[in-house]
Amino acid sequence: MSVGGLSASKIKRVIALLKMQGKVLASGGADPEVLWLYDSLISYLGDLSRKEIEGILRASQLKKQRFGGASINQDYNIQPFEAEALSINEVARMVSDDSVSRRALEIIAIHRFRVPKGSMRSFHNKAMLREKILTLVENERTHEAISNVVRHRAEPDHSV
User: Fold this and answer.
1) Among residues of the chain, what percentage have pLDDT more than 90?
2) Which of 43, 83, 130, 132 makes the best surface tag, with the fewest CB within 10 Å?
3) Which residues are CB-neighbours of 31 under 8 A, at least 6 positions away?
4) How far apart are CA 133 and CA 91, in angstroms?
5) For the chain, what are the domain ranges?
6) Are 54 and 7 in contact (CB under 8 A)?
7) Which class for 116: exposed (0-12), middle (13-18), buried (19 or more C-beta within 10 A)?
8) So what's the pLDDT on residue 115?
9) What are the pLDDT digits (tens) for 67-126?
């Protein structure tokens, strides 16, 4: 099914179904904290616009495609919140994919790594931008490795 073109009425029907399911969960004696979280998520979804919901669904499809081995279509319009949520491995995979557009790479650099928007002009071509993002990926991996070593050393040795 295509994400684009979802009607507001279909979205409202799905949210209504989710609310009914919440009532079933409540009558079945579900944990009150789980019910509260469930209701909060439904409320959040109900407050989103159709475009925001389509963006979330696109992000979900994109993640499934990437893990299924498919590449990102060059025309794919990645949203800032999607870029922020990318794992370091997903970023590395996208940056290595020649079909990913420069615009998508800019969004990743700006929203995932907080590269100032104005500095995008300094990357005269897609290859320069790709190299910058790969450097940021390696920096993040290095910081993670250092953190893991420090955390491991901070743990008490129970073998004594």
Assistant:
1) 36
2) 43
3) none
4) 8
5) 71-160
6) no
7) exposed
8) 94
9) 444 344 344 568 888 888 888 998 999 898 888 889 999 999 999 999 999 999 999 999
